[in-house]
Specification:
The complex is a heterodimer of chains A (313) and B (510). By secondary structure, chain A is mainly α. Chain A has 13 helices and no strands.
Chain lengths: 313, 510
């Protein structure tokens, strides 16, 4: 296990470096005139050149990259060109919002997705049909439409929840819960559908395998077979889906964040990418890359813990 | 029913009741009186809170903490603020100002003529957005409360600039330290930034300044929250989580209109149209002919365009002068009626009976699909083949204004209430006339207007406007009607010459 961890750590660092370099170079290639964007269209060329030099944009791209990397390794990710935000602070301000959504959605998805999937996979019949219909509907309904309907009904019309904004958990737990409830529900519908479908299929497949049939014929209690053998073996694909969904939420929550006016990472990514704000984009890309590496590692470890045969020697 | 199920339902109901107590909003309708917090929604993020970076719709972020030398009232008049009196000499080249006494910055440093000079010279020399507006001025301190601004030549836009971003006065003791004001503003304004509650980039929180020299504002706290779509803003207005906002899009204006408790006022500031830079024909030779430019104007079905793009929310126009300016003439709004036959005839007279090819840059944030296809269709009817060149926001400015790749572009532009600013921004050689093509009659009128006091220039600007329209320097589509929306308990006045109200224009309803 230690060797596995060391190898994964080494490959992760290499992955992060390559990601950083590629992103920086690709972002720097466009014919962008940051000085002019900042100073406005009426600024003189001299002032624009001075601004570009102040930002270090008059240097070769690789020099700029190594300068960024040196500072980043010391925890200094720079400052946004277009809003003067400290990159680390800006991401730090928005990360709790998106993390709240991600964790909330993942918990809801894990609980309801597994419950529905197991229910459908074990009971079959009408229950299975119901779960199948729910899964198709969850996938088919456009996320933005579901979100808009939810906000209009439960926030604007009924006034049960705030329509916009985010309250940090450190300020008020109930306030925090009230601001993330509707966004989490909006994002969870499709996610629950996906995981339920995956768990259902896995449960059915594992239930039909020879060793489960053997255990059943030996008279082991049905519940024990389900929890100790079927669910354990059926969990791997579902865990993978859950992990992918968790990572996808980093950027996938954009629409929900925009509709609820949540100052999260998703809407931040859209806004600053369209502006070409390289310091912020680099910070976001590194955050995402590190998140992907960690989640994948955790998923691998979880699968390894659940399924000894899946462990890497 | 199963006890567990009943228990779960009970818990869910309790949770909803508990959380709905935290919803904090309620409908705007239920609010008859208002607390002393003003919650503004905006789509604009200021580059920083240093006045040298202040521009356009971001001005309220600065007005909260910095006073300007001159106050511009909602109807565009100039009134005393940090300057109590001012006057020009006879040839309009020296502006003498008397400054207010007893005003201090956040750290207690007094505001005086030296501080004003330091600020004005910083704007002039910083290379920022206001450098061009104050270029060539010399500032002399007469005594603590008097200073003079000497101009190389008259600048009829100067008082406007001093009531706008170039008039924002910051504490000069912060100038030596680079970036000191970027996130820590230090001015004499009615509010101070609460840095603990502010999250730069998303939410700015301002608290009322206790020792403000002027009339105390109605609000103890002002928050400005940035949104990237108007859907959330309208939901916030409807639930009372936002007190005021300017809505630009037709569909969200419609959504706000459906809530009868909200107050909506028209804001006419931005116009949309094609700026034809290439009137000398450097990129597209056909555009050198006035008849060709006139043909483009006649080819355009403005009424249909306005209806399709903005649900009719606006006023079609053929002029770039706005309704608040001296040069505006109502009759010029429909100077170019939709007349494809006349457009064809003009093209034939200009030697282009089969039309010509025109390539314009397309910024999708401005040129939406319906605008793109409508222009192509209208121009194609008279033989002009319009091709859209997709440009990304990051490199657009360079391609258009530095590399001069295109003959024109579709833009949304504010219509200043100051005629000289309209002239110097859109007409005179410079940013939006980067090919420098001019007209003798316009030059003569500009020279005359420049040398006269503002109250004697209306006729000159009207003549200039007529000439520009007749020569078809632009293909304006329409002025866009925006809506200033407020909740019950809040009063706001639209600001002449700005898309958003000044911070002083908000008050508690009496």
């Amino acid at each position: 296990m230690l060797g596995f961890l060391i190898r994964r750590l080494a490959s992760s660092i290499a992955l992060l470096l390559v990601t950083a370099l590629l992103t920086f170079v690709l972002l720097s290639i466009p014919n962008q005139d940051v000085g002019r964007q900042l100073l406005g269209m009426q600024a003189t060329q001299q002032a624009i050149d001075a601004k570009n030099a102040e930002l270090g944009l008059d240097r070769p791209i690789l020099v700029q990259f190594f300068d960024w990397l040196t500072h980043a390794l010391q925890g200094d990710f720079g400052r946004s060109w277009f809003s003067s935000e400290n990159v680390a602070t800006a991401i730090g301000n928005r990360l709790p919002v998106t993390l709240s959504l991600m964790i909330g959605v993942t918990l809801v998805t894990a609980v309801f997705g597994y419950l529905l999937g197991v229910w459908a996979g074990t009971r079959r019949g009408r229950v299975d049909t119901f779960v199948q219909v729910f899964s198709v509907a969850g996938y088919a309904l456009p996320g933005f439409l579901v979100t808009i309907v939810i906000v209009i009904v439960f926030a604007v019309k009924l006034g049960w929840f705030p329509a916009i904004g985010y309250t940090p958990i450190t300020t008020s737990f109930t306030g925090w819960l009230s601001t993330i409830t509707l966004p989490v529900i909006s994002l969870s519908l499709a996610a629950v559908a996906g995981v339920a479908q995956q768990v259902r299929s896995s449960v059915i497949e594992v239930s039909r395998s020879d060793y489960i049939r053997t255990l059943t014929t030996r008279g082991l209690p049905r519940r024990r077979i389900l929890f100790r053998h079927v669910l354990r073996n059926a969990s791997a694909p579902a865990l993978t889906v859950l992990g992918l969904q968790f990572v996808g939420l980093l950027g996938g929550a954009v629409i929900v964040e925009q509709i609820f006016g949540l100052p999260g990472i998703g809407s931040m990514t859209i806004k600053y990418t369209s502006q070409g704000d390289i310091p912020i984009i680099m910070g976001l890309v590194m955050l995402t890359a590190i998140g992907v590496v960690i989640i994948n590692l955790l998923v691998d470890l979880a699968i390894g813990a659940l399924l000894p045969k899946a462990r890497v020697s | 029913m199963n006890k567990r199920v009943l228990g779960a339902i009970g818990a869910a109901v309790a949770a909803v009741l508990l959380l709905s107590g935290c919803a904090g909003g309620g409908s705007a309708a239920s609010t008859t009186t208002h607390d002393k917090t003003l919650r503004l929604a905006t789509m604009t993020v200021p580059q920083s809170l240093d006045p040298k970076d202040a521009t356009g719709s971001a001005l309220p972020f600065f007005q909260a903490v910095y006073d300007t030398l001159v106050l511009r009232t909602p109807d565009g008049d100039y009134k005393p603020m940090l300057a109590t009196e001012w006057s020009y000499n006879d040839d309009q080249t020296v502006l003498s100002m008397t400054l207010r006494t007893g005003v201090t910055f956040d750290d207690g440093t007094p505001f005086d003529a030296k501080a004003a000079k330091a600020n004005l010279e910083r704007f002039r020399d910083s290379g920022g957005p206001d450098a061009a507006n104050l270029a060539g001025i010399t500032v002399d301190v007469v005594d603590d409360t008097h200073l003079t601004l000497t101009l190389q030549q008259p600048n009829p836009g100067l008082l406007f600039f001093l009531s706008d971003s170039a008039g924002l006065m910051a504490n000069p003791s912060d100038f030596a330290q680079k970036d000191a004001l970027v996130t820590s503003p230090d001015g004499t304004g009615p509010y101070v930034l609460d840095k603990d509650k502010t999250a730069i980039g998303t939410t700015w929180v301002y608290e009322k300044r206790k020792d403000y020299w002027g009339t105390a504002p109605d609000f103890s706290t002002v928050t400005m929250q940035v949104f990237d779509n108007e859907n959330a803003v309208v939901n916030g207005l409807k639930t009372g989580q936002i007190d005021a906002a300017v809505l630009q899009t037709a569909d969200q204006q419609l959504a706000a209109e459906q809530d009868k408790d909200l107050t909506l006022q028209d804001v006419l500031f931005d116009f949309q149209g094609i700026l034809l830079f290439d009137r000398g024909g450097a990129v597209t030779p056909a555009l050198a002919k006035p008849e060709v430019r006139q043909a483009l104007n006649y080819a355009l079905d403005r009424e249909t365009l306005l209806k399709v793009v903005r649900d009719g929310r606006g006023q079609v126009t053929s002029q770039v002068w706005g309704v608040d300016s001296q040069g505006y003439e109502k009759s010029l709004d429909d100077y170019y009626s939709y007349d494809p036959a006349k457009a064809k005839q003009l093209l034939a007279e200009a030697g282009y009976p089969n039309g010509f090819e025109l390539t314009l840059p397309r910024l999708t944030s401005i040129v939406t699909d319906n605008i793109a296809s409508a222009l192509q269709t209208d121009f194609a009817k008279v033989g002009v083949k319009l091709t859209w060149a997709d440009v990304d926001a990051a490199s657009a400015l360079k391609q258009i204004f530095v590399e001069k790749k295109f003959s024109g572009m579709v833009m949304n532009m504010g219509q200043s209430s100051n005629d000289w600013i309209v002239y110097s921004t859109l007409i005179a050689p410079g940013t939006f006339n980067f090919f420098g093509t001019m007209d003798d009659e316009v030059n003569t009128l500009a020279a005359q207007a420049r040398a006269l006091p503002a109250d004697q220039t209306a006729e000159l600007y009207q003549k200039m406007n007529e000439r520009i329209v007749q020569q078809a320097w632009f293909v304006p589509f329409y002025r866009m009607t925006y809506k200033l929306v407020t909740v019950p308990g809040i009063t706001a006045a639209p600001q002449s010459g700005m898309a958003v109200p000044s911070i002083y224009n908000y008050s508690l309803s009496k």
